[in-house]
Amino acid sequence: MVLHLVSRWPVWLFRWQAAYTPGASVQQKTWAGMSRAAPWGIVGTSPLVCRHSSSTSSRAPEVVLTHKRYPVQRLPFSVVSEEDLAAFERMVPGRVVTDPEQLEASNVDWLRTVRGCSKVLLRPRTSEEVSRILRYCHERNLAVNPQGGNTGMVGGSVPVFDEIILSTALMNQVISFHDVSGILVCQAGCVLEELSQHVEQRDFIMPLDLGAKGSCHIGGNLATNAGGLRFLRYGSLHGNVLGLEVVLADGTILSGLTSLRKDNTGYDLKQLFIGSEGTLGVITAVSISCPPKPKAVNVAFLGCPGFAEVLQTFSSCKAMLGEILSAFEFMDAECMQLVGHHLQLASPVQESPFYVLIETSGSRAEHDAEKLSSFLEQVLGSGLVTDGTLATDQRKIKALWALRERITEALSLDGYVYKYDVSLPVERLYGLVTELRARVGPRAKHVVGYGHLGEQSRARDGNLHLNVTAEAFSESLLGDLEPYVYEWTAGQQGSVSAEHGVGFRKKDILGYSKPPEALQLMQQLKALLDPKGILNPYKTLPSRA
């Protein structure tokens, strides 16, 4: 096998030809800044399309009410009265929604697996308005469901019963941005993609990137401690958030929008609310540190013959690319088949059992080109990678990312989806997919696995997005999946929720990842900050600690 490199950066043209042997055809593969003409048949919608804009049709069957599908009892909260509606109208005039048709979308999660029956939605614009609403609800014992972009995966963003929906959609203002430090201060209802555009115009980027960026709100990202596609490079929101403004259950405004990286004065209270899913307080504003925008970005999309080769490619990648490595994603062959079938996204490489997407971000194109060239030569020459393509311009980079980002959208078009988001040691990461395929057999349409490898400078764990699709919801199939998935994960010392949160769907399985003492302390914190339990009830914490 001979690898010929012609490094004319940024055009980047690689040609790889396998030596001819009798009875074998000459195999020619092309690496290019532009992909090969035939495979780049990516047509249709933008890769940045809102994740729930096309996942369902007007003919989709009605979603069963959550309290009818799941064993959950309504807690003794008050019921919204005409007097309550009049009070809310005085607090947020013209922004009290009671029309059932307008409420429908906010009562159903975008996966269409859970549905509440809220009769009222409030749309405040300021923290002061949120404070007045919560103070009133606290006095009246009215349950409240905070809601951002409603792109959550675990039923945490929609009511279970008739909770009041508190939408942050109108809290969408950028308060300030510091051009030297890169510190952004904004309201919680800002859409992630719009924030990305705002800071990129000033030569910075958001430390967080998600497939749902066109719909999700930064407040919801914080409430669920979303991980996303830049976790490998920039870490979790726990490290990037400098301060929060939060409204507590009784209406108290906890103002902590500091811009200080170093502040060692007492308890770091903001960390309590990151990942609390609206159960301890409603996040209304954030101060977040944004890294400088990389001057050179490259994306390689590679085919691998097996998961062992995926892991070896990742090890080589970290060793050889080092500081410029910003993302390493993997997906199996069934994922590629689904995005091709449902979204008409064509593969840019030959069919493979696994695919990896590697992104590099650096400050000097020539330096990155040299490192990437050495890496690609090694993985191709050793057989870890059998085919691939490279993109250096934004249009083709977005097209390659679409293959990964829109897997969830394709799955939602395949039928009812059972979704699992677990973290596992990398060497066992795909084992769960293999075992589950054998366990459920033909009763599932597809069992697929994709996700992220590594945690910043360590390669110890990975995040697996395990998805099982079927024609319709089945109690029998669910019984084969749960608690098996959670028991298997716990047996490998993994976590039952890597980045999607807990919400309604996972609240009673926390014991697989947390000891009783931790669950008890969580219940005590909830009782302290929300003694009446009005904030996002039935979510995040087990029914019995």
Q: What is the fold's blueprint, element by element?
A:
Elements: E1 2-6, E2 13-17, E3 28-32, H1 66-69, H2 82-91, E4 96-97, H3 100-107, E5 121-122, H4 127-140, E6 144-147, E7 164-167, E8 174-177, E9 183-187, H5 192-200, H6 218-224, H7 231-234, H8 237-240, E10 241-247, E11 253-256, H9 270-273, E12 282-289, E13 296-304, H10 307-321, E14 325-332, H11 333-343, E15 354-362, H12 365-381, E16 387-391, H13 394-405, H14 407-412, E17 416-425, H15 431-440, E18 446-455, E19 458-470, H16 475-481, H17 484-491, H18 516-529
Give the tally of β-strands.
19
Oligomer: single chain
- Number of helical elements: 18
Strand order of the largest sheet: 16-13-15-14-18-19-17
Radius of gyration: 24 Å
Main sheet summary: 7 strands, antiparallel
Shape: globular
Ranges where pLDDT stays below 50 over 5 or more residues in a row are 1-58
How big a fraction of the residues is strand? 15-25%
Structural class: alpha+beta
Average pLDDT taken over every residue: 87
Measured as a percent range, the helix fraction is 25-40%
Through-space gap between termini: 60 Å
